[in-house]
UniProtKB/TrEMBL annotation:
Gene Ontology cellular component annotations, sorted alphabetically: plasma membrane
The name this protein goes by in its record: Proton/glutamate symporter family protein
Classification via SUPFAM superfamilies: Proton glutamate symport protein (SSF118215)
Membrane-spanning parts: 7-28, 48-72, 84-106, 164-186, 198-223, 235-261, 340-361, 367-390
Swiss-Prot/TrEMBL GO biological process terms: dicarboxylic acid transport
UniProt GO MF annotations: symporter activity
Species name: Staphylococcus carnosus (strain TM300)
Length: 426
């Protein structure tokens, strides 16, 4: 991949997608626009996304195995794992705090109590009621069940269902097995290394051939159906989420690279552009994973660390999602005329951290998990119906933030390990 050209092409495709998609959105009732949207934007975009999705499970499996083998020491692996988890939890808590403070200051829902009576709420309430009509109400996972479910009974089933946490657990065990067996498992190790090379080659090929046109189509399709008009009514909510995302992106990730990794944030953000555009275009942390790992490795992140930290992050670290959930909760409280107490706000922070961990790295799930946060502070989850119309665009933006957080963590840990090794060598 000639990355300089490719990055430029993807950025141009992204901008063109936004412009042409927004124009098409104005004429979204026209038959020609509908045709172009369905048979060109959506079809090409989905093919591109599927091509990347096709690689996600094999890439996660192979790279985590190699990541564990590459770290080479179970103790060091534990240390990296712990650091990763602490980083993920802290940055998510910071993200939601920024979001809540901003929403409390700007009050995007003030004076919009009419929205609560709008048709969107009742139609979403009907959807919720319908879901609950079935004999089995959606089972709430208790903590013990969540723990049990980390361990797959059948790893193949976990892979076919895309249960990333179970795939990660299985991969860690295979990696530890290969690491401990050393020479005896050399062929298995080599198989994984070569399989990884093959996967990386396919990713480069897909990116070189399809990324610009695929990104253009995905973004154009998202904007065509986005109903940009709806943004007007929910404008302040939209802007608060966007500003909180931008603040978190530059301050927290930029700060992490500058002060913890002691490197240049500009170099980091620039090198990560291809992954950001795929995250933005596809609204899926999982889909962006193969490209985002390639980007960080190119920036000098040690492969074993990128391979371990980023798949885990794409599954459990969702700062952008937490930001949306924080702003949405305050917004819904404001339009409902509810006053949240300090205890309730702290509850929102804790539950949103948990909800974002539970959010799968695929489009739209963050909004579904928002119901959990709203219910915890006695707000009506049906109010999600109000913001659902503009969530597609916010999903794109928050996904870009989600994956950048994972990459910043991998970058920081890798640089810190490099420094440790250099100190030892002196
Ligand atoms: N689309 C987001 C992601 O994949 C998850 C969400 O917030 O819906 O990271």
């Amino acid at each position: 991949m000639k990355s300089k050209h490719l990055t430029l092409n993807i950025v141009i495709a992204l901008i063109l997608g936004i412009v042409i998609g927004s124009i098409c959105d104005i004429f979204s009732q026209s038959g020609t626009v509908k045709f172009i949207d369905q048979y060109f934007f959506n079809t090409v975009g989905q093919i591109f996304l599927n091509l990347i999705f096709m690689l996600v499970v094999p890439v996660v499996f192979v790279s985590i195995v190699l990541g564990v083998v590459g770290v080479g020491d179970p103790k060091l692996l534990g240390g990296i794992g712990l650091k990763t988890l602490i980083f993920f939890l802290c940055t998510t808590a910071i993200a939601i705090t920024i979001a809540i403070l901003l929403a409390l200051a700007v009050k995007p829902g003030a004076g919009h109590s009419d929205l609560m009576k709008s048709a969107d709420v009742s139609s979403y309430q009907k959807t919720l009621d319908k879901q609950n009509e079935g004999a089995e109400a959606p089972a709430k996972q208790t903590f013990d069940q969540t723990l049990i479910n980390l361990f797959p009974k059948n790893p193949i089933e976990a892979m076919t269902q895309g249960n990333m946490l179970q795939v990660i657990t299985f991969s860690i065990f295979i990696g530890i097995g290969i690491m401990v067996m050393g020479e005896k498992a050399l062929i298995v190790k080599q198989f994984f290394e070569q399989f990884n090379d093959v996967l990386m080659y396919i990713i480069s090929m897909i990116m070189t051939v399809f990324a610009p046109i695929g990104t253009f189509c995905l973004v154009a399709h998202a904007f065509t159906g986005a109903g940009l008009g709806a943004i007007k009514q929910l404008g302040l909510y939209f802007i608060v989420v966007l500003v909180a995302l931008i603040l978190h992106f530059f301050l927290i990730y930029g700060g992490t690279i500058k002060f913890l990794a002691k490197d240049s944030p500009i170099k980091f953000f620039k090198g990560f552009i291809p992954a950001i555009t795929i995250g933005f275009g596809g609204s899926s942390s999982n889909a962006a994973l193969p490209v985002s790992m390639e980007c960080t490795k190119k920036m000098g992140v040690r492969p074993e660390i990128a391979s371990f930290v980023q798949p885990l992050g794409a599954t459990i670290n969702m700062d952008g999602t937490a930001i949306m959930q924080g702003v949405a909760t305050i917004f819904i409280a404001q339009i409902s005329g509810a006053q949240l107490s300090i205890v309730q706000i702290l509850t929102v922070i804790v539950i949103a951290v948990v909800a974002s961990i539970g959010t799968a790295g695929v489009p739209g799930v963050g909004l579904i998990m928002l119901a959990m946060v709203l219910t915890a502070v006695d707000l009506n989850p049906a109010a999600i119906g109000i913001i659902i119309g503009i969530d597609r665009l916010l999903d794109m933006t928050r996904t870009a933030v989600n994956i950048t957080g994972d990459a910043a963590c991998a970058f920081m840990i890798s640089k810190q390990e490099d420094r440790k090794l250099a100190k030892k060598a002196n």
